[in-house]
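Quick start: read one record
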Amino acid sequence: MAVPTSPFPTILNFRDIGQSINGLQTAVFEDRSSLVLVYQIKTIIDLRSKTEHIQQRKKYDAQVCHLGAGLGSAGLAAPTKIPGIRYREINLNGSSYERTLLKRLRYTSLAKLIALMAVGRRTEAIFILGSEVIQPRGLLGQAKDSIDSSVMELKQILEILAEAENYPVLFHCTSGKDRTGLIAFTLLLILDIPLDVISADYLASEGELVAEKEARIQELSTIGLSADFAGCSPDWVVNVHKHVTETYGSLHKYLDWIGFGEALRSKIKLNLLEDTKAKS
């Protein structure tokens, strides 16, 4: 099955999960308007951290200044949040995930990180965490840590997706492939989509993000991560699924463990599967 490409010039890696699917990046006025007027998006789940929000505001302001002449006054005045859409900001890799990473640091590195944070040198502090913990574990290790640590956040996100009143829903992180990919992976498994189809969707992000790959590699280098983190690992879906089944028994047992039981999973199926809707 061919995975559709983004219909928006300035929203990279945007796909419809109903067509086997994910993302949102910096969008100019026309594309932002289409999310409301054409796609009728009601809810946006933002998986990013506070630091990423600050960086995105700067990136958006720079883009608006650069394209201002073509956008008109309405585009220049557009806020980062799109009017008419309900926003739910849930940092998927929040405090529990951060604690997991910090525990893996050597004592001297942890002390240095705390000192840098105390004087506002956040990027240098994150570089220590990136180079010494995240980089050695790779994309797969990052996903495993999210699954094992970000239990409360994942449950919150799935609870939003279980409520029909929130649809249509768009969920995104920065690139739309790692945290967004993990949510898409979980949703599609709940819907009993085959692993090869889920993998094809995940790998589609590689081509969708080519336009900003070099810039992304530069950004990653400032936090101690290599170019590998700008791409997609071919075996990511299979290995994440393997981690879930070996550690928890199955995805359903994992979801039961985090408190997202069968009744809630059925609500997601009702929202997203056409056959289920027809029978209700």
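The two ends are 28 Å apart (CA to CA).
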